[in-house]
Every structure is written in structure tokens, then in C-alpha cells.
């Protein structure tokens, strides 16, 4: 089974199976199943060998008009032609041996390939490095933004905690004042109820002296009601 040095497996010219043999005169790549099929063509001499032992030879293009090998080249038409074409439709054209053109094209191909390897490929590598460096820079910016965000969150959290502590202290102080006010209000409520009861009893009596001896303490209650204390929180 033939392979193209780590690339895709070389396939038979007659079917999709991997190549195992090669016919030197026909330059045909064959699998084991297609060897007999190829040999049945008696119009040509065959020499089938293992693919690794094949003879590499120049394969000329075939003339589309005469089915002959194109061993010449028409510069005017930029096309490979056979001998019959030279004395026929290309008779007055600039014709040369195809091998000369092949050598010129090989030199051009080698030069272009070297330029691609030495310049274009190097430029691509530099571009990849630049893209990679750019990504690193962006990652650094994102990291710095995240760090800054965390710092801001920590600062805000610290300030909020300070404000919470102030509110807790106010609440604690206000709790004592509220307790004192509640006790004072309860006392006032009890005294007020007693005074109301006493006044109603005087109103219901028939003794004039009790009414004459009545003294109003309403002003005292008004003063006591204005003595309530309350602590209001200041957050800042």
C-alpha cells in the first residue's frame, strides 16, 4: 500500500482502492484487483512492478487533436502541441521544444516557491505573533478592569459597613430612649385616667364644697406630654 509520506493514501487510477502496483510504460497506478484488468489491454506493452519500484518518467500532455504526445510548445498560442500540429495549424507560429519551456517554468516555480517561503511565509508568522501579542494585551486590560472592579466593590462595601455600624449605634441609643418614653407615657396614662375618674366623681356628687375645692391640673399634663424624647438617626 502506497502513501504520500504522511499525506493521503495514493489511490488506484481505475478504482478508489489504495495503490500497490505501477505499470511503467503506461504510467498507471494500480491496486491488486485492477492489475489483471489493466493487462487485458493488448494494444500496449505492460511492465507492472511494485509501486515502490516504479520508474518515474516525464509524462507529456496528449494532443487533443491528434492524440499524440505534445513534445513541442507554441509560444504564440501558449499551448503544448504535437508534431502534426507544428506542420498544420501552427505552421507559421513561434514553436520550440517543450522541454525548454518546462525548464524555464521550473526555474520560475522554484523562484516563486523560495519567495513564498522566505518572505510571504515569514510575514504570516510575524502576523500571527502580532495577533497573539494583541490578544495578550487585551487579556491584560480585561484583568486590570476586573481588579479595578473588585477594588471599587471592596471600597463601597467598606463604606456601607461603616454606615450600617452608625445606624446600629443610633438604634441602640434610641432603644433606651424609647423604653424611657414608654414608661413615662404609661405613668401619664395612669395619672390621667385617675384624674378623669376623680373629675367624674365630683361631677356626680351633690356636695357643693367638692366642686368649690376643685383645682385644674390640666396644664401640668400638657407640660408632661411635651417632655417625650426621641433619637433620630443621622446616617452621614
Structure overview:
By secondary structure, the chain is mainly alpha-helical. Among the domains are: 1-57, Double Stranded RNA Binding Domain (2-Layer Sandwich); 120-225. It is built from five helices and six strands, in the order ββαβββαβααα. The strands form two sheets. It has a three-stranded antiparallel sheet, with no helix packed on it. Strands 5-4-6 form a three-stranded antiparallel sheet. A hairpin with a 4-residue loop joins β1 (21-23) and β2 (28-30).
Topology, element by element:
Elements: E1 21-23, E2 28-30, H1 35-39, E3 48-50, E4 72-74, E5 79-81, H2 83-86, E6 95-97, H3 98-204, H4 208-212, H5 218-225
Antiparallel strand pairs: 1-2, 1-3, 4-5, 4-6
Distance between the terminal alpha carbons, to the nearest Å?
Answer: 87 Å
Major beta sheet, strand line-up: 2-1-3
Overall residue-averaged pLDDT value = 83
Question: Would you identify the regions where 5 or more consecutive residues have pLDDT less than 50?
Answer: 228-236
**Assembly of the depicted chains:** single chain
Largest sheet: 3 strands, antiparallel
**Strand residue content:** 5-15%
Q: Cα-atom Rg, whole angstroms?
A: 56 Å
- List the total number of helices: 5
Amino acid at each position: 500500500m502506497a502513501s504520500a509520506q504522511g499525506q493521503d493514501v495514493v489511490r488506484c487510477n481505475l478504482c478508489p482502492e489504495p495503490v500497490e502496483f505501477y505499470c511503467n510504460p503506461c504510467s498507471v497506478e494500480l491496486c491488486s484487483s485492477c492489475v489483471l484488468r489493466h493487462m487485458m489491454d493488448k494494444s500496449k506493452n505492460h511492465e507492472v512492478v511494485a509501486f515502490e519500484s516504479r520508474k518515474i518518467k516525464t509524462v507529456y500532455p496528449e494532443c487533443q487533436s491528434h492524440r499524440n504526445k505534445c513534445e513541442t510548445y507554441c509560444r504564440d498560442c501558449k499551448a503544448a502541441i504535437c508534431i502534426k500540429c507544428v506542420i498544420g495549424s501552427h505552421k507559421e507560429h513561434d514553436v520550440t521544444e517543450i522541454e525548454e519551456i518546462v525548464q524555464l517554468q521550473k526555474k520560475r516555480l522554484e523562484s516563486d516557491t523560495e519567495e513564498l517561503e522566505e518572505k510571504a511565509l515569514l510575514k504570516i508568522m510575524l502576523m500571527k505573533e502580532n495577533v497573539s501579542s494583541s490578544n495578550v494585551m487585551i487579556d491584560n486590560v480585561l484583568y486590570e478592569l476586573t481588579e479595578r472592579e473588585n477594588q471599587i466593590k471592596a471600597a463601597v462595601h467598606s463604606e456601607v459597613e461603616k454606615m450600617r455600624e452608625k445606624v446600629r449605634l443610633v438604634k441602640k441609643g434610641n432603644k433606651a430612649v424609647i423604653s424611657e418614653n414608654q414608661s413615662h407615657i404609661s405613668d401619664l396614662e395612669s395619672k390621667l385616667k385617675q384624674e378623669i375618674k376623680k373629675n367624674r366623681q365630683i361631677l356626680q356628687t351633690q356636695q357643693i364644697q367638692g366642686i368649690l375645692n376643685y383645682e385644674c391640673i390640666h396644664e401640668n399634663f400638657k407640660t408632661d406630654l411635651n417632655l417625650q424624647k426621641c433619637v433620630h438617626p443621622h446616617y452621614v
